[in-house]
Amino acid sequence: MTPDIPRMTGTDFTPSWFDTARVNRSAAERRASSLTARRSVKKDWQAAWLLRAVTCIDLTTLAGDDTPGRVQRLCAKARQPVRPDLLAALKVDPITVGAVCVYPTMVPHAVKALDGSGIPVASVATGFPAGLTPLPLRLAEITYAVEQGAAEIDIVITREHVLTGQWSALYDEVAAMRAACGDAHMKAILAVGDLKTLSNVYKASMVAMQAGADFIKTSTGKEDVNATLPVSLTMLRALRDFEQLTGQTVGFKPAGGLKTAKDALSWLILMKEELGTRHMMPDLFRIGASSLLGDIERQIEHHVTGRYSAANRHALT
């Protein structure tokens, strides 16, 4: 399920596309809250949307106590994220998740466990989650992960560049990371909870896309505030503006704090309303999550049987 869209070429650094941008937080919050309030997805449609969400998940383990065994079990779940009996009851063919996301040293174990599945391995890199190691070391980490077999790299930006308005420095940094990724697709993590304002989020999104990011991603999952609907709306508006200016289609990945099936539906609704059905496909939309899949499978079982099962019946590993 490696993304079907071509690698982004980016553009020259063009401050005029974002330097006067201002985002009204109250307006963004009203728009985001209205989306889920006025659109609902029920019954068979809800089950279909939840299955679509499964195919867009970057199933993730980024813990200090990760082991090859844990990664192998996660990859087994990635191959078969929803129980076969539930899919049979829905008359749906087998599905897989969008990718498995791990630390660089776990990439070889994930690649081996996913061999033949078509599921790409994504690796965080560049001093994740803080991104405060020297740039040569961050670039070397990207190179290492790619050499180990990662098809997608989730990089983190230097937040200082955003907070101090050093947009050219941010562009140069992300462009260097993009070059280090080679043929691997690059997701630029903005760590939105650290950027303070939605205007900063918009500008950082635009700079990352100018520098060649294939995806823009909200969070590492380690900040105090991670993916929210107003932040995601702001990033999608930047993504839409960039596509109108360049004709290049960039993907989007919310991560951190998405834990329930209701969360998955909310972000799918946001994608549908802001960008259309094409942007609900896994080559343009990913959800960074770990526990989310268990709740989605639980909701699908309720749809099939009319009963809720215990959460431990849908363990990830």
From TrEMBL:
Its main location: cytoplasm. Keywords: Cytoplasm, Lyase, Schiff base. Its EC number is 4.1.2.4. NCBIfam families: deoC (TIGR00126). This is Deoxyribose-phosphate aldolase. Coiled coil: none annotated. GO terms for cellular component: cytoplasm. One of its GO terms (biological process) is deoxyribonucleotide catabolic process. It comes from Meridianimarinicoccus aquatilis. It is found in: Cytoplasmic granule. GO terms for molecular function: deoxyribose-phosphate aldolase activity. Pathway: Carbohydrate degradation; 2-deoxy-D-ribose 1-phosphate degradation; D-glyceraldehyde 3-phosphate and acetaldehyde from 2-deoxy-alpha-D-ribose 1-phosphate: step 2/2. Gene3D superfamilies: Aldolase class I. SUPFAM superfamilies: Aldolase. Belongs to the DeoC/FbaB aldolase family. DeoC type 2 subfamily. The gene is deoC. It catalyses: 2-deoxy-D-ribose 5-phosphate = D-glyceraldehyde 3-phosphate + acetaldehyde. It is an enzyme of class 4 (lyase).
